[in-house]
Amino acid sequence: MTKKVNFKPLKDRVLIKRIDQEERTPGGIIIPDTAKEKPVEGEVLAVGAGVRDDGGTLHALDVKEGDRVLFAKWGGNEVKIDGEEYVILKESDILGILCK
Prior knowledge:
- This protein is mainly beta.
- Helix content is 0%, strand content 37%.
- It contains no helices and 8 strands.
């Protein structure tokens, strides 16, 4: 369920919407909001064009819109666009793409 956003990241930056964690543990214990950590899983909503090397060749990013990714817990910048919270980070802060 990719949501369209009026935002286009530059160069090697990526716009991500965090995906909330489960409210319960596998054993059924409810986790209170104060004990939850920030999710490190998200959906890529927009990607920049890529970066240019010294020769001027453009190298596209490995991630694309709609990918579910894991990213560094404290990486990126949190922003609000149209009242929604997102994370903008460099592709190097993305740890990997979750396979379906």
